Amino acid sequence: MPDPVFSHPHEQVVFCHDEATGLRAIIGLHSTALGPGLGGTRFHPYASEADALADVLALSQGMAYKNALAGLDLGGGKAVIIGDPRTQKTEALLRAYGRMVESLNGRYFTACDVGTFSPDMDVIARETSYVTGRTVEHGGAGDSSVLTAFGVYQGMRASAQHVWGDASLAGRTVGVAGVGKVGKHLVEHLVEEDAQVVVTDVDAEALGRLTARFPQVRVVGSTDELVREQLDVYAPCALGRALSDDVVDVLSAQVVCGGANNQLAHEGTAKLLTERGITYAPDYCVNAGGVIQVADELDPQGFSFERAQARATGIFDTTLAVLERAASEHLTTAEAADRQAEQRMREVGGLGRIHLPR
Prior knowledge:
- Keywords: NAD, Nucleotide-binding, Oxidoreductase.
- By secondary structure, the protein is α/β, with parallel strands linked by helices.
- The protein is built from 15 helices and 12 strands.
- The protein is globular and about 50 Å long.
């Protein structure tokens, strides 16, 4: 059986452990061809270290492709901290993690992800300068889910343009699975455009907050129930692997476009979607708004939300280009997105062969 690390084309995988604080983390760097790896830190109670490793390998590769497709001069990295953030997250643990990030000397920049937030990045920044997604009070971009949702919305509009010849979502029925960080902002965009929104989430409080604000949103009891609804668009916005064979078999939506990472349950899922006539907007293409937002913090002039939002608007054109490439080259949309990202990593990343004196 192949080694789980070396069966993936990653540049570097770092296992981090600090007994005093209880820190157990893994940092994965898939590629730094375009620049230092940028990707968030996920704090999650993985069942095993093997599960955590599999997640960080997949997520860091996704970040490499996401950053390339978004036109950023950044590579792909990701980190996972193993544990329950509700009970194990402490200042000492986060600062120990920050020292681990610092030890990579700028090859990896961290940011927020599931289980971590901007105030956590401020704590990590006390030990390393290689941090983005900090609070506004500390000169950062704040909550990156704002532009993540905006980018998903742009990708959804591009998908509508491709499938129905009209980018408008007014009157379309959109099912959103997960109304946490990203999902709640996406619902806001959809409601503003007069889409018919159906949602589900395991967090009853999150659903309550959403429906108090948008009483016209309809709630169903589970994701299984949601995917069986008569939908035009399905938006997975929770954890990955949302598009299993069973889901694809029952899905009525003509478009899948959501904020979750690594939505395809396996490599054959994209083909199953194509065979069923469902247009899948690749997740790392449409959910790049967040990384665009936090990457803007690295600008020498400081963070500008307006500049970042203008760049995230380009997700519409990028998504449309991927969908059109898939159609013209008889590829799945996942294959088309991969080829587009790999082309940029190859062409632009290869400029490193031209020596520039420092």
